[in-house]
Specification:
With 284 residues, the protein is an alpha+beta fold. It is 33% helix and 21% strand. This is PARP catalytic domain-containing protein. It comes from Symbiodinium pilosum (Dinoflagellate).
Length: 284
Amino acid sequence: MYLTQEDADCLGLCLDMAFGVPCLDQPTLSSLIPEQEAVQRHSRTKLPDLPHRQRFQRWYRALEIAEETARNYKTPQYPCRLTAWLQQALQQLCPGDDFDSLRAEFLHSHGRSVLQSLLQKGKLNIRSLLPTPLSTTARRQFLQNYSEGKGGILRPTLHGTNLVNHASIFERGLLIPDPCKNGLRVVHGSAHGLGIYTASLENPSLALDFVRPAWGSKAILLCGVVDDTSYTAEPKSFGGRVCRQQSTNIRVVGDAVIALTPDRVAPLFTAARVCFACCCCQYS
């Protein structure tokens, strides 16, 4: 900020007109005052009272400069990591696709809370958030059950599994283990009944504990569950834990949300430490 000639006269400075800055080489007003007058000025002799405006003219001008500086000051805006990840995922969705419209609704409603759960409670250092390349058949089955909210509310959950299983999940969807029908067997037990186990946002470690890092990355599936449960009058016990919410399709036991039918849950996004190739391809 450069000083004007009026500011320089007010502050008792000699202004260099070429650059608009005080010139220290030229004499100031105080140096032009005779030595005797300077001594008299600093003596205890009371000088005549000046008008109020002139007496505080320098002070008023300093306040004006400070207020102008405060008005023009802008707080630095730092990009929010959560917002950047959500925008990254939204940009890869197709606006005209019904399933992607549902995913966009999921992000707007639950995206920030899901990421905060993974960062703060799960201690997962997220590097990417990408839509899952779910097959057309799996998308259609989930949309039919959701039916724009008529089948139940869209509840955010987390599903942890090894990275090598993602390709099969994206092709066939999440399935209930059945060696005769789909060739899958129970690996980690089914203490709360046979079904597809996901974790609520209150306890993301329940899903992260089943993720085995591969190639230096650790990924978890962000799922949507069509929840039509209601509180039961007589809670039941499963595996030593009380179940207070249940329906014919969903069972909630503690922090575990179990889908009793496979078309009630779908992996919508993948949160990973690094971007990996299997999330970049698309199924027709």
